[in-house]
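Forgive a beginner's question, but would it be possible to get any protein sequence you like and the tokens describing how it folds?
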Amino acid sequence: MHSFDSLDSLCHSFFPPDSPGAAVGILKGALRYAKGFGLANLAERIPFTPQTPFRACSVSKQFVCLLVLQLEREGKINLDAHPSTYVAALHAFPASLTVRHLCQNRSGLLDYWCVAMLTGAKAESVFTLADGAALIQSLHAPMYEAGSQYCYSNGNWRILEWIIESVTERKLPDLLAERMFALTGMKDSGWGVDTSQVLPGNARGYRRRSNAQDGNIWEEEVTRACWSGDAALITTLDDFLNWERAMLAGTLPCSERLREAMPHPDRSRGSYAYGINAWEKDGRWMLWHSGALRGWRMVHMRFPQERASVVVMMNRTENPMPCALKILQCAELKTTWDEVSESPCTGGENETFDRVLAGNYFSEKLGLLAEMSSTSGKITMDLGAEAAPMLRTGERTMANASGFYHVEHRHNVLAIHARQFGWRDLFLRIATGEGRRLLAGRQFHNALLSATMIFSADGTALTINGPHGESDRHAVRSLGDGFAAFDCTRALDETPPGRFTIRVRDDGARIDVGCFMARDLIFN
């Protein structure tokens, strides 16, 4: 492994002394590295340390799944049973849905944090546990048949929490404290449901001020959402390294099963297992997950064969992966996802290819729209979440660097294979046109959400009125004939939904609204 001096220098470059900071940890065999950089609280100049309490967010999911696996071993939960077996109120959910589908993001259920942004909520709105429970139970109509593909859905873990508490007649935080925290030496860890509550030690989360010319002026993020089984873990770097040590050693019952991902229907390997991404290549494993709330971002990567883990915890709304990948290099570790190499092409070929390819493509089966763009010879594909840079792998083919997406361009059709999601489909090019024409000055209502989408007189903007108030004003852009979109870049949860696609149906009698993680919501 490279020297700690080079690692310290790298982390200082990402997290200067006067900025929001991070705690960085490495385990590799008997080696343990744990240091803090930058500040946990800018106003009070509190340093970020390995003992700073931190919102781990979605990294919580593996803790809940491990508890489910332990309860299955004890005969209290059947992974192949319908959730209503344990919580009668869930009887309206699809008959094919199982507890296992919930654990592995195979439920097909819409993500409730995405849908919440269609109920009039703003990023800083109050959103209670009761609000979340009611919304989750109303979203029982799935996007696709359970098990047929993978799509991230936070509500799965709220349902798992209800199941756990039903079969044990105990509260989830108490079970985790007894079965996880106490047995792994996580003495400063707990469960933080209300994100508006200040953490012990007064650490705060920040974002770069959008109008700051140098990009280094920070403002505090404000969150008022409540969550639990999906994201409520509060921990420290020291505690989380104890967790990683226990996972690498297999000291907790059923921990070796966390990597067991269901295969996709085509029998290809699944990439999401029990609350954790599980990637294998040539017999070598990498288990990893990220956690995100505005102001709090985290990623950890676990390598069982090397008995190694890397952890990055940041109190800023930025992607931790670039830093984590640099730290992997310092630790002489490699990821196990594919590494795609770009095929050499002449500049003229690139320009022609880009010009023909650029545009918007729609999959009727998936209800997804792919935006293909090219700027300065760089191609990106946006399915509605985060734009993925694409590399040319052949005359008519491309893939992203990790190999998650493979795309073939066939004139007005894209054949897209999303490996980690387990689907392949054809996306047809949308004809050019003004997608906002039939929306101008109109209102559309969704009875399920009790929400009304109100378009401006010229159709270039919209607001949403619903049970959580009136939303921010969103700019509406045309995507082609019958299609428009608005971008939701700040939300109750992080990462935000991104692009919501609007498809005008029946000459404007209704619209289909959706994002990558929550599709096919009908507004009349």
Remarks:
- The chain has a mean pLDDT of 94.
- The chain has ten helices and 30 strands.
- Residues 155-168 form the longest helix (14 residues).
